Structure formats: structure tokens, C-alpha cells
Amino acid sequence: MLVVAACVGYLIYSASGGSSEYYLTVSELRAHPAYDQDVRVAGVVQNDVLHPPGPPGHATVQFTEKDSTASILVVYSGPLPDIFKPGITVVAEGRLGADGIFHARSILAKCPSRFSTSPYTQ
Amino acid sequence: MILADIGAGALLAGLVLAAFSTLLSFWAGRQENAVMVQVGRRAFYAAAGMVVLASVVLEAALLTHDFTLVYVVEHSDLSTPTPLIAAGFYGGQEGSLLYWTLVLGLLGSASLVASASLGVRLAAYATGVMATIVTFFLVVLVLVASPFDVLPITPADGLGLNPVLRDSGMLIHPPVVLAGFASFAVPFSFAAAALLANRIDAAWIAHTRRFALLAWSFQTTGLVLGMWWAYHVLGWGGYWGWDPVENVALMPWLATTAYLHSAQVQERRGRLRAWNFGLVILAFLLVVFGTFIVRSGVVPSVHTFAVSAIGPWFLGFLAACLVFSGALLAWRAGGLRSTGEPAAAVSREGAFALQNLLLIGVVAVVFWGTVLPLVSGMLGQERVVDASYYERAAGPLLAALLALMAAGPLLPWRRAGAPWLRALAWPAGGAVVTLLGLLVFGVSSIPALLALPLAVAAGVTCLVEYGRAVRKRRIGLFVKRRRRYGAYLAHIGLVVVAVGIAASHFWQQEADVTLRPGEHVSVFGSAFTYAGAEQRQLGDHSELVAVMRFGDTTLEPSRATYAGLGGQSLTHVAITTTPLADVYVILVGSSPDGSASFRILINPLVSWIWAGGGLLLLGVAFGNLGARRAETVAAVTRPAVVPSWR
Q1: How far apart are CA B78 and CA B80, in angstroms?
Q2: Coil, strand or helix: which one is B64?
Q3: What ipTM, to 2 d.p.?
Q4: For chain A, how many structural domains are there in total?
Q5: Best A1, A2, A12, A91 residue to mutate vs chain B (most B CBs within 10 Å)
Q6: pLDDT tens digits, A26-40
Q7: How many CB pairs below 8 A link A and B?
Q8: Which residue from A67, B288, B423, B453 has the fewest beta carbons nearer than 10 Å?
């Protein structure tokens, strides 16, 4: 029993050391720029979504942290979530480049689940 | 308006009855007053009846578009198809809590009907514990999250359901998952009651076995349906994303799976008594923990849940359950120690014990990954883990479980001898042949070289067991000892699932292409031709449908836009299943010049996951419908004779 527990403990320890990423808000990333390191950054998509010329589906997205002044330009190319539009909260996973642009590998949208609030309860 | 009053009244009456049942049952159990125990039990049935009434009222309000109710406005509109309106019952926070309570009320009542044979005390305490849980839910439903709140002004139409949820998956996945969560309160209540009544024999296990199996079957079905739904509708070619909401559904399933195996050790050999109590309690705590995580939004998830007032209530409930269960186990710990000679490590019971430890190890891995943002956020900067954490930490444990599935069923109870080693030759041979085959095909990934041969070995073990019965010309055994042969079928189902997961995980291929109409592309040896796109107007939404030819098959990935919902769009993937792989095409975007871009995925053997899930459930159903209980029930004490009150 102790052997199995020790093995599980070791697996958790070694795997979480190598596979965990920081989960930041835009202002936290701005305050402590972490270059060359995978992070996830959450923020609200602003009204400046650009679809640059080129193959469709590629999007350059700029979003600004909702409750502060920090903002970051996010460049992403690939399928966007269905509900992606200005005003929704997304989580971008990727790296902050030395150019100050966040190069995202993936964009996750917060799923508008059945538990979402509506104007009637707010 | 009248419906709202009836519904709210029913909930309040249910709350009073459930609270009464709680107090009376605990008191009468202590006094061993059989008449009062019966009254307490009937109060529980009456409370369940009130919950049924409230549920019927809510469903009626939804179906009749009673927009005086906030809940109806928020979860339906006039254009929603009727089945989805009906699904609105469990589609929102308040309704899903009512549904939870409904399932517990009905299954709880069913479990109590025949409980008198367990003895006055145990039956009374089981009623009391179950009534306590129902009381908690009704307090939340009455005070914090009532589905019968009324709007001051009645709107003409509701807000409707999000397009993402307008899917047949919505009709089956959430109710099954929630039922799986709710039904595990039954084994928990009886386990806690057995500890309270100091009845530590296997009677409670035998009595709740079918409820544990039902809970497990709901959980299994819910997980498979969730994966299927994610794969076909919500995900981008993935069926599992290690999202916290998925994790909290997986953890109780793992604990319940462990319990279904370890319970056999107690039923047959009278061992692992404390462990079984612990597992049932753990499974229930994980359910409550999961409900808290899902409803409170404390952990970042792609599923957003409105930060609601019920979070603290569930945290309090979780803490109360934790303290109550911990104290109960500590109090009875002395009497739970196994007696007699220690079991040999290489034996059936040894294999079950190791399997249990490995499953709980996986629970620990998933739990840590789920709460890490919470823990790290309290200590400093919030951290999250990605899928590779789960693969690296849980992968070796899952591989060990496959190995155990190959060896364990061949082991005899008590002690294994030389015949066991000979029996092991078959699965070992299967593993070696698979390994050589993979090497010949140039597979070099170590995890794949480990997982697939072990899965094959586990499958061979089950086939060998079937083969033995066939060779002895005793097909009748399959029916007579169906618990055993049903379990082998379930194991085969799980092996098929494991192969599907391994193949789609290790050999998924992905390509992004942009094509003009009429253009061809070859992706991983398959030719695709983009024929063009067309715009279709369908009811409340319009669809841009791209037509893609793949051999003789026409694939039509599309993107629907709902004008009524702020132009929200919904992507429909196109999937065609060939024997060895799914071809999965996503329309990523289109541009005015007519070109369109696609993401094409080749997902090997994904269909095996669904087929294996079906086999798994079939095996469990076959093994347990109308089956006798375990052949030798090693009861330590005889159930007390029930004093007849009639």
C-alpha cells in the first residue's frame, strides 16, 4: 500500500512540475512579463478583432483586460470558438514574445453554459 | 402564477416532511421503536412525493410557456422545440437541483421499501441520513435557488436556450450525469447508517448493491455520452479535455468502480470492511465536491457557471459531510479491523486490493490537477496543469490497471499456485504478439507499445475464461454464473474503449487546408475535393454549408448563424466513419472569393470507444439483472430479527 502511495505521489510530483502553466490575467502578465514560457491568459475580447488578409479562419485578436487598463495584442491563427466575438471572455494559451505580442496556440472560450446568468437575475 | 404557488408550496411542504423524517428516524432508531421508524420512513416517501409534485409543476410551467416564472423565461422561448423545452427542467441551476432531489427522493424511497429486513436501527438511520441530504437540497431550493421565483412583469417571450445546447445530446447527457451523481447518495446513506448502528457485516453492501450498480451505470453512461457529445458537437475533434467539469464527473466513477470490485472481497471473504465504508463515503464526498466545483466557479473551466449564491452552501455541506464521515469512521475504526490470517499478496483479493489502490491513485492524480489552481492561487500565483500532466501522471497507473485486468481474473481466491502461472501464458502470449506486430509496423512510441499489448492481454484473459466454459461444453454457465461472465464482458468492453482511446490518442492526424471550389487536396493519403459552399435558410438560423467530397462520401461541414441571438454561430462538424478511422472535417472559415479553410482530422478507432462503452454497460446489465447475490456471503453477524409491528 505504501509502495503504491509513494509511486502515485512521485508521479503527481514529477508530472505537475513539468506540465503546469501560470494562469494569469492580462494585467498580471503585463506586471510580470514571462517570456519564453507557456502561460494561459484570460481577458475580454475588445471591439478591435482583425481578420487579416490571407486564408480565412486566421484572426488577429486584441483584447483588453476588462477591469483594468492593461491590454495585450494576441495573435492567433486557427479555428476560433463558435461564440468568439467582442465582449466574451477567452483564455489564450501560448507565449509572450519579445515583441510584446502574445502568440497564442489555442483560444478557449468560456462555454456559455446552461448556468449562465441573464439580465433577469442580475 | 398559480403554478408558481403550487410549486413553491410543494417544496416547502417537502422540506418540512424531510426535516421531520430526519429527526423522527434518528430518534426512533435510537429507541428501536419500529412503529415510529415506519412513520419516519413514510414521511420520507411523502417528502419525495412533494418533490415529484414540484417537478411536475415546473415541467408544466415550461411546457405551457408560463413566462411569469424567471426560470421559464431564462431557459426557454416560444421557438424552442418541445423536447428541448422539456429538457429545460434540468437545464438550469435551480431546475437541476430539483432534478437531483427528485432522483434521490425516488431511488431513496425504492431503497427504503425493503430496508426493514436490515433491522430497525440500520433502516431508521439510513432513512435519517437520506432525509438529511434531501432536507439540505430542499433548504437550498426553498431559500437560495428556487425555480419558482416570479417576475414582476411578464415578458412576451423567453430568452431561449443557447444554440450550443440545442442538440439531442442535451436531452440525454445532463439527466444521466445528474442521476448518477444523485443516486450515489443511496449507498452512502446505508453505509453511514451501518456505521451508526454498528452493523459492520456485509448486509448493507448486499442491500445497496443494485443501487451502487445503478449509480455506476448512470455515471458510465453519462461519461460516454458526454464524450460522444463533445466529439460530435462541442469539441474540436476531442472527446476529453481534462476540464475540471469533466474531472469531477470522472472521479466518483473511478471510486465507484473501485467499490464495485472491493465489495466482492467483503461479500466473499469478509475482508476490506473499513476500506469499503471509506470508498462509498469517498465516492459520495467526490460527488458533493464535484457539485460544489461545478456550481461555484472556483476553478477556471471552459464551462462558465454564473457565480451563484449556492457555492457557500455546498461548501458548507461538503465540510459537514467530511466531518461527519471522518468522525464516524474514526469512531468505529476499532471494530472494522479484519480478523484472521492476512491475505496472500498473489491472490484474487490481493489483485482487488491493488486495483483499488491504483484507481484511488488515479483519483488522487485527477483531484490534484483539478484543485491545483485553487491551492496555488491561495499560496501565490495561480497555476494550471494541461493534458500532459494527466497523461504523465495517470498514464502509468492506467497501464498498471490494464496489466492487472489481464492477471487478476485468473487468480484464485486465498492463494495462487502454479496453475495460475500456466494460465497466464495466454494473455502474456497475446501481449508479446501485439508488441511484435506494433514493432513490425514501425511504432516507436513507448506509451503505445505499453498500452496496446496490455490491453490485448486483458482482452485475451476474458476470452480464455469464455473459452474454458465453451470447451467444457457448459454454455449454461454463462447464464447460471452470469455475474462472473457479465463482468468479463464488461472487461472486454473496457479493453475496446482503451484500444480506441489509445489509437485515437497516439495516431490522430491533423491538417489545416484552404481550398478554392473545385480544388483537390491529399491529406494523409486520402483525397478530398472541395465542391463549393451554399447558404441555406432554416427556421431561426441560416447555415453556410461547404460541400466536400471524400471518395464516394459527401461531407457537409457547416456553420450556422443565429440572427436572433446576437449573430452567435455554431459549427457543425462533418464526420464519416470508416472501419479504422473517423474522417472529421471542420469548416473553419470562408472568404468572399469563394475559398474556404478546413481543419481535417483523421481519428483512428474512435468508434471503438462508443462500441466498447456499450459492451461495458451490456456486460454489467447482463451480469446483474435478476442475478443472485454473491455465492458465499460471508456475513459476520446475522441480521437481527425484525420485530413485527403489525
Answers
A1: 6
A2: coil
A3: 0.74
A4: 1
A5: A12
A6: 777 777 777 777 888
A7: 167
A8: A67
